[in-house]
């Protein structure tokens, strides 16, 4: 009996201790600061994920597009296949040995050409392995690159876009809301998850 | 109350914060991936589209044609070549996973010298140094002191080295690997030689047979040409000949082939040939005419007694076999790799002669030679010949040993003493791509390209309905500072110059290949050209060359039934209680698959065990010995012992235990080493009459160790997840 009551007492004391401490303003302020730090860190982390990743060369899409270079000139695979592909160093230098030869970023390109080394680009948009995505039908349907990739023509590195399933489906549903056959096809699971 | 709620809220907010922090961790993961485009794109590729290359698989000796999908210079996927007569668009698991050889992180990445044998430390050398080292090795020793040991090596390299050794007057290269010897292919070729007069591996036309008796031939997993036979089996089952084919399997342990067979007879190990003999005798008795000499003095009751098959079954099977329109008997590894393997093979092949299926649809065929170095030996060497090499090494008669495509320190039974013999060789040069046990004992490593980076050809010994030669080509540029062994050797030959360079006049590997293939230009194939360069284009495009239409040679076997067949009982070494049934894992096979994690994690087809070794014991035996699943037992034979966990396998004879090859590496990279047990420690040195290793001739003891090792298995286990 004594033991039992003793243990109950202890539990009470324990509960009392925590709740008492929670009422202590210093602890409250401390906890508040801790919470703010965690939330702040998390927010900053989230912000980081929304930044474009650092690239070996800060490639200015804006300059190229404003000079009239078509997207498909460097990424022709989008027209015919799954992946748009990345231009070879030879292709970059094909133009750049003639035009705009000097800038700190272009010096990096020259170095790659001299060493015949591939540029390790960091992909901005990555779909998970369980998603089957092909560029070709989207280009064939008359979409512009900007529809999904944002205003690339006005940026240096592409800005991140949240490409989740809802975002894909939203577009499929809107575009084909009057075409039940296509709507069924393009909202079917196995269309993308095959 | 309000206090409690505030605490809960506090916890909620905190966990939400932690979840957010967790989320942020997921985002930038993708940033660790980079994409490297070509620096200069080959003109036949198109940005963003895959490029496909036809090549051939080198994971086993079957030589299936494959097509590899590549994207921007990286190999992505291997599939069968739909036009190739062996694979017809299919591959096995090992073929698919060959990619992991290319991308393996443990590959040798540069030529190097090993300051101390057995140590992993390497000091890099240049390829120029390597070439001068080779030319030194070839000139500073007597020709008889040079030895080449090959394994799963592309045929072109063997042909090239045979030319070099002939020019040097050195011994011809020896070709051995566990694949060919464990399945006793040389014995099978000897059997064919005795019965048909031609030393070749027969082709069994499974697709058109309506009744097939397989005597230990595990043709769905590893035997001879598993992709071709799996396809033949499917055709047989789907009734391409008008009815569903019937398969009967005789072997002590149920393999994947026995699993799909209509009937399985677990005969006593080593009596497969005797059962074939009894079936032949009973057929001959029922035939009415006089009994052929081959079956004159067959003691059927004695065989029934020895094999454990009962008489009514035997008579029923005899009737099934003799009534069949196209009956076929296939000798397999457990029959051929016995002490009486040569006789067993003869008895089984003679059964085909008895039902007259030689050269008939659903029968036995021989594959004719193609005019590509046709004089060179194509059948792998026997263990007896390897023993001779080991003796020469031991006596100091071998001063330099070149090893390519084989890992004898791991694959050979330690009782043969190869490792000790290696210590007597002053210079060992390995061309290995991976840090395997043998290359760890080599003084110099001159890494060859892996198969997907290599040129070559593979002569198809069996597996297709026509003569075929598979062509290999690089599907990607070499990843590391490796060199084709053929190029390195030719470099050495040119450095030596003189008569050798005149006798071996090739500028490089591709030149050698083109000159070797000259003979095919004038042979009628499914493509025909008049000059080698046009031939080469089509050869590379199609992944090889084959005859336009199906057709193989019919073996003649007049002598088969006229001479008496030997009928010795199998002999065994060791006093143990249990027969040891060593078998090839369809995934790890000779152990070369063990460094590929996809193969390690693919469940074994019968037991579903992954990443480990196991001992298959019949549950009745296990109950008698008080063993449950995952108990570790010590298995000992007169030659050695190993420890592995028990798997209670109902589909094995109670007096037999089964262990698979492939695990128990002490080197060979991060995925392979220190995992499971090496079966070869139990194997002895007994040879069969053909001179091949008689693998299934060991009796072993089992002792409980008291240790437990949980095997990772895919199947449900009693007591877990509600399974009773």
Describe the protein's architecture and organization.
The complex is a heterodimer of chains A (194) and B (724). In chain A, helix 6 crosses helix 7. Chain A has a domain at 2-49. Chain A is built from 12 helices and no strands. The longest helix of chain A is centred in the N-terminal third of the chain and has 25 residues, at 25-49. Chain A starts with a helix and ends with a helix. By secondary structure, chain A is mostly helical. Chain B is α/β, with parallel strands linked by helices. Chain B folds into 5 domains: 2-32; 51-102, Single Sheet (N-terminal domain of TfIIb), CATH 2.20.25.90; 109-172 and 380-448 and 483-495, Rossmann fold, CATH 3.40.50.740; 181-365, Dimethylsulfoxide Reductase, domain 2, CATH 3.40.228.10; 578-708, Beta Barrel (Barwin-like endoglucanases). Helices cover 31% and strands 16% of the residues of chain B. A 7-stranded mixed beta sheet of chain B has the order 5-4-16-15-14-6-7, sandwiched between helices. A 6-stranded mixed barrel of chain B has the order 20-24-21-23-22-25. In chain B, helix 4 crosses helix 18 (485-496) and helix 5 runs parallel beside helix 18. The radius of gyration of chain B is 27 Å and the shape is globular. The model of chain B is unreliable at 21-29 (pLDDT under 50). Classes of the chains: A mainly alpha (194), B alpha/beta (724).
């Amino acid at each position: 009996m004594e033991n039992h009551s003793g243990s109950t007492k202890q539990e009470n004391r324990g509960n009392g201790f925590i709740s008492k401490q929670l009422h202590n303003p210093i602890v409250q302020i401390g906890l508040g600061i801790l919470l703010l730090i965690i939330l702040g860190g998390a927010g900053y982390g989230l912000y980081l994920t929304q930044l474009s990743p650092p690239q070996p060369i800060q490639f200015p899409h804006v300059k190229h597009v404003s000079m009239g270079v078509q997207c498909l000139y460097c990424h022709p695979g989008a027209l015919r296949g799954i992946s748009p592909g990345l231009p070879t160093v030879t292709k970059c230098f094909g133009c750049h040995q003639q035009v705009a030869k000097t800038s700190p970023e272009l010096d990096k390109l020259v170095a790659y050409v001299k060493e015949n080394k591939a540029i390790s680009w960091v992909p901005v948009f990555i779909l998970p392995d369980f998603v089957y995505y092909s560029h070709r039908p989207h280009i064939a349907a008359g979409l512009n690159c900007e529809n999904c990739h944002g205003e690339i023509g006005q940026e240096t590195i592409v800005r991140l876009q949240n490409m989740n399933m809802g975002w894909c489906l939203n577009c499929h549903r809107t575009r084909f809301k009057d075409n039940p056959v296509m709507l069924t096809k393009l909202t079917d699971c196995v269309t993308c998850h095959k | 109350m309000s206090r409690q709620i505030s605490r809960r809220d506090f916890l909620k907010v905190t966990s939400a914060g932690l979840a957010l922090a967790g989320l942020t961790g997921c985002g930038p993961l993708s940033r660790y991936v980079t994409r490297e485009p070509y620096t200069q794109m080959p003109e036949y590729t198109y940005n963003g589209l895959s490029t496909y290359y036809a090549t051939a698989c080198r994971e086993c000796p079957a030589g299936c044609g494959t097509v590899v999908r590549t994207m921007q210079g990286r190999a992505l996927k291997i599939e069968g070549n739909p036009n190739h007569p062996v694979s017809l668009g299919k591959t096995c698991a090992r073929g698919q996973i060959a990619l992991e050889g290319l991308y393996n992180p443990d590959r040798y990445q540069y030529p190097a010298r090993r300051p101390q044998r057995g140590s992993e430390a390497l000091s890099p050398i240049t390829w120029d140094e390597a070439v001068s080292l080779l030319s030194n090795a070839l000139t500073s020793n007597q020709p008889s002191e040079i030895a080449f040991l090959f394994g799963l090596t592309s045929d072109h390299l063997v042909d090239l080295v045979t030319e070099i050794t002939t020019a040097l007057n050195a011994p011809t290269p020896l070709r051995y690997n566990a694949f060919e010897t464990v399945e006793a292919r040389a014995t099978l070729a000897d059997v064919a030689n005795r019965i048909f007069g031609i030393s070749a591996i027969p082709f069994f036309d499974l697709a058109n047979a309506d009744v097939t008796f397989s005597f230990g031939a595990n043709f769905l997993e590893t035997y001879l040409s598993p992709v071709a036979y799996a396809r033949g089996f499917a055709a047989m089952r789907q009734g391409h000949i008008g009815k569903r084919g019937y398969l009967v399997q005789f072997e002590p342990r149920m393999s994947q082939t026995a699993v799909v067979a209509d009937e399985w007879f677990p005969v006593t190990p080593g009596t497969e040939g005797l059962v074939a003999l009894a079936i032949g005798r009973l057929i001959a008795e029922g035939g009415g005419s006089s009994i052929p000499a081959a079956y004159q003095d067959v003691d059927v009751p004695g065989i029934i007694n020895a094999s454990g098959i009962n008489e009514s079954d035997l008579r029923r099977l005899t009737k099934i076999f003799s009534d069949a329109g196209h009956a076929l008997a296939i000798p397999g590894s457990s029959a051929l790799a016995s002490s009486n393997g040569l006789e067993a093979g003869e008895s089984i092949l003679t059964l085909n002669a008895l039902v007259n299926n030689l050269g008939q649809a659903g029968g036995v065929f021989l594959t004719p030679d193609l005019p590509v170095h046709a004089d060179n030996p194509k059948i792998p060497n026997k263990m007896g010949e390897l023993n001779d090499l080991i003796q020469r090494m031991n006596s100091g008669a071998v001063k330099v040993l070149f090893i390519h495509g084989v890992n004898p320190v791991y694959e050979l039974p330690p009782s043969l003493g190869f490792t000790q013999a290696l210590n007597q060789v002053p210079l060992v040069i390995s061309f290995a791509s991976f840090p395997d046990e043998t290359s760890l004992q080599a003084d110099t490593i001159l890494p060859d390209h892996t198969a997907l980076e290599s040129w070559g050809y593979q002569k198809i010994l069996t597996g297709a309905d026509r003569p075929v030669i598979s062509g290999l080509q690089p599907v990607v540029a070499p990843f590391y500072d490796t060199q084709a062994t053929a190029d390195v050797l030719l470099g050495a030959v040119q450095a030596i110059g003189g008569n050798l360079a005149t006798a071996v006049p090739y500028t490089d590997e591709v030149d050698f290949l083109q000159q070797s293939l000259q003979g095919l230009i004038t042979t009628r194939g499914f493509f025909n050209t008049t000059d080698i360069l046009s031939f080469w284009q089509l050869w590379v495009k199609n992944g090889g060359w084959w005859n336009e239409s199906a057709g193989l040679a019919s073996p003649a076997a007049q002598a088969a039934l006229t001479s008496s067949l030997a009928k010795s009982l199998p002999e065994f070494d060791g006093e143990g209680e249990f027969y040891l049934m060593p078998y090839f894992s369809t995934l790890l096979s000779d152990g070369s698959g063990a460094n590929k994690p996809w193969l390690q994690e693919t469940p074994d087809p019968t037991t579903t065990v992954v990443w480990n070794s196991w001992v298959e014991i019949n549950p009745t035996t296990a109950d008698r010995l008080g063993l449950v699943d995952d108990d570790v037992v010590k298995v000992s034979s007169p030659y050695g012992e190993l420890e592995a966990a028990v798997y209670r396998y109902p589909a094995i004879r109670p007096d037999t235990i089964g262990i698979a090859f492939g695990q128990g590496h002490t080197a060979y990279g991060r995925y392979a080493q220190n995992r499971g047990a090496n079966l070869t420690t139990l194997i002895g040195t007994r040879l069969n009459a053909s001179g091949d290793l008689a693998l299934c001739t060991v009796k072993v003891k089992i002792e409980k160790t008291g240790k437990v090792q949980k095997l990772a298995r895919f199947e449900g286990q009693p007591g877990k997840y509600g399974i009773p």
